[in-house]
Structures are given as structure tokens and as C-alpha cells.
Amino acid sequence: MRWKNSCTDIPQSSPWIDPMGKPYREITVVYPAYNEEANLQATLDRSLAALESLFERFELIVVDDASTDGTLALLEDYARRHSQVRVLRNDANLGAGASMWRGMQAARYELVINNAMDYPFDLRDLARMCPLAEEADIVVATRSGRPGYTPYRRLLSTVNRWFLRFLFRLPLRDCNFVQLYRRRVLQSINVQSRSAGFLPAELLLRARDKGLRTVEVEIEYHPRRAGKSVMGRPRVVAASLLEMLRFWFKRLSSPASPRRSDPPPERQTAKRPGETSQPI
Q1: How far is CA 163 from CA 35, 173, 245, in A?
Q2: Domain boundaries, the chain
Q3: What is the pLDDT of residues 79-103, one digit of tens each?
Q4: What is the second-level CATH architecture of the domain 16-256?
Q5: 198-253 confidence digits (pLDDT tens)
Q6: What angle do CA 165, 207, 163 make, to 5 degrees?
Q7: Over the range 156-182, which residues count as b (16 or more CB within 10 Å of their CB) and which as e?
């Protein structure tokens, strides 16, 4: 994987610049949703407001993962009132990873990003990530802090990061926040994982195998205010670990599997207009 320095100077010929006056042309934002009726209205309202200020064309794809509360009804009503919102529904509960992947595969626009329904990533920060797509195929957001995390969640994150470095020599600090992809990257990669804990890492590993360019950048994390996260549940953790080990064993047994030892990426802080980037 070729790592690039973060840079927010956009060439005037940039394909992401919209000639009609908005900073960027188009993006798809994917939200998995399971029993998120407490977060749904506020998150979609904030998403639309942020995207309308930045993009000429955009869509929100919300994948309802067979919710048992009022999530689906609220989504369908919201989509009727906002043409930029598309609702997909899983017939059975497949998990956040499978739902995220389904939404990404349905994306219509050139840039694609994932987010969670509790809005941990403020879409206004796309103004700091999109310019990096000039130099990279994937832009990985690293949480600058993790407010609201319990010691248990912090331990899980540390162990996950250690496993990825030890088994795959993947030097990224955070694979489980949000990533900004070019749609052609998603169309060119066939991932096997469906767990939210390992699917993003598998995407990045397969991108590295293809020699695609990735940049890592610090972005602020916003803790959940309503509802409950499922990421720390033992069943979810076990599924992610199992898929990680299965992927590792498969690569070990395949003589054609690439085994790269990439140097650590030069990580830089995303900068606001007028600021300069400094190595993290």
C-alpha cells in the first residue's frame, strides 16, 4: 500500500470540485441501522445539513438491519420527505458489517463513506477529508480521542490494533472509525468478512495487496448520546476475531498471497484552511 502525506491544497483541476459553486461534486454516505429510532431524526437532519453545504449531489443510504422497534417506519417516512435518502432493508439481522457492505455496494456516487447512526463522525469534517482523495484511493480517519469509552472498549481497541499489526503488519492506528473510498475501489475488491470489527481492515488489506494508495488522518470522535452500541458485545467481538484468524490462515496457506512489510505511514493531522500539517 502506498502511503501519502495528508494535503489539503486542492488543484484547480480537481475532479472533486464542483463548478457550480459547492466545494465538491458528489458523495454517498452509508448508515447501518438497528433499533436506532432514538438517533435517527437528529442524525439524518444533521447529515443533510452538512452535505447540502458541501456537495452538489449526494445521497444517504440507510440499511435497516431488521430492526424490531420503529426504525423502519421512521426511515420510510423520512425518505418520502427527502429524495436524497434511500432505505434498504435486510430480511434478517445480518449485523452492522454486512449492512455497511450492502450499502456501499449500492452507492451511486464517486466518493463513498461509512458512518454510524449515533453520528460519531461529523460530516462537516468531510471538508477536511475530501481533499486528501486527490492523493489517495482511501482516506482513513483516526479518532483523535475516544471520549465516553469504557476501559473494556479501550482494551478491545488496543488488542484489535495489536492483532492487525502482528498478523498483517498493518500500521494504521484505527481501522474501525470511518473511511472515505473511491467507488471504483469498492467495486474492485471482494471482501469475505461481514463483521463490523474486521470488514474495514480486510478492505484495507486487500487494497494494500492491489497497491492502492491510502492516507491516515486524525478526526474528532463524537460519543454516542442515545441507544446502545453493539460493538463491544462478546458475540460481535468473537465474530470479528474468528474472521480475522480465518483470513490470516487463508493467506498463510496460499502461496500467491502477498506478504508485504510496509513502513509505518507518515500520519498527519487534517488541517483547516490556513493551517499547516504537522506529523502526529
Answers
A1: 31, 12, 10
A2: 16-256
A3: 999 999 999 999 999 999 999 999 9
A4: Alpha-Beta Complex (3.90)
A5: 999 999 999 999 999 999 999 988 875 655 555 556 777 888 889 999 999 998 88
A6: 15
A7: bbeebbebbeebbebbbbbbbbbbbbb
